[in-house]
Amino acid sequence: MLPREDLLKGIENRDVVARVIDRAEQAIKTWEVVCTDFLSPPELAEAQTAFKRLTEVQLFPWGGYPQAERQRLAIARVDLPLEASQTELAAIEIAGNFLFDSATHRDFLGALLGTGIVREKVGDIIVLGERGAQAVVVPELVTFLEEQFKQVRSVPVKVRSIPFEALQIREPKKKEMVTTEASMRLDAVASAGFGMSRSKMADLITGGEVRVNWKDTTSASYTIKSGDLVAIRGKGRLEIGEVMITKKERYRINLVRFI
């Protein structure tokens, strides 16, 4: 048995990580590759952090394509080979004419959940504008959705299975920059990276809109470091790169912003 209570210490998403532990124990017992449900980025980060110190099992996160936010974890004993193909996923197309009644990500997700399925069975949703959307789901849902998923907003839709190569992924835009700051405070570095005033950034942080390494961070004075990832809902992500100390004892910080 795995050291459950030790693994769950300091974990915010305890129920989710506890289910990952259950799956890991199954993988150890059966000598098979098992998969979790889809995890959100914060849940995924916590699960991976918790399992880092274990030597019995290995985790492989995959959501259908490299930039996928929601991913399943394939779990196996360390003795077994583990790769993306062993993560059970399916891609679907949700086709309809949305020219006169456009639908958002929330609309497609709401319509999917309206069929009775739960969020944990659905990965990323890629909105294609007037043509509909694509989504990554667990394979056992495909037939059900083909038969039962018929409408988004006022628009009739048709669902069909598609190969993963057909997913129309938009590569995130990347902007590299360098800033020099007096400290490594979150509000100072993030305001430079996202191109907004420090007071506006502080408001976003205290308002719960900012995450560091996928954890909610409401302290503007939080100290960040090289390798950290800062995310703001609706505004993208900021990767903290190399940090150097200047002769004037200020911090010269390399940043990469993903939009």
Characterization of the model:
By secondary structure, this protein is an alpha+beta fold. It has helices at 4-7, 14-30, 41-51, 105-113, 142-148, 186-194, 198-206; strands spanning 34-39, 57-62, 71-77, 90-95, 122-127, 132-137, 151-152, 155-156, 158-162, 174-181, 210-212, 215-216, 229-232, 236-245, 251-258. It has three domains: 4-86, Ribosomal Protein S8, Chain: A, domain 1 (2-Layer Sandwich), CATH 3.30.1370.160; 90-166, Alpha-Beta Plaits (2-Layer Sandwich); 174-258, RNA-binding S4 domain (Structural Genomics Hypothetical 15.5 Kd Protein In mrcA-pckA Intergenic Region, Chain A). The strands form four sheets. It has a six-stranded antiparallel sheet with strand order 10-15-14-13-11-12. Strands 5-6-4-9 form a four-stranded antiparallel sheet, covered by helices on one side. A hairpin with a 3-residue loop joins strand 13 (229-232) and strand 14. Helix 6 (186-194) packs across helix 7. The radius of gyration is 21 Å and the shape is globular. The mean pLDDT is 94.
Q: What would the keywords be for this entry?
A:
259 residues; alpha+beta; Ribosomal Protein S8, Chain: A, domain 1; Alpha-Beta Plaits; Structural Genomics Hypothetical 15.5 Kd Protein In mrcA-pckA Intergenic Region, Chain A; 3 domains; six-stranded antiparallel sheet; four-stranded antiparallel sheet; 15 strands; globular
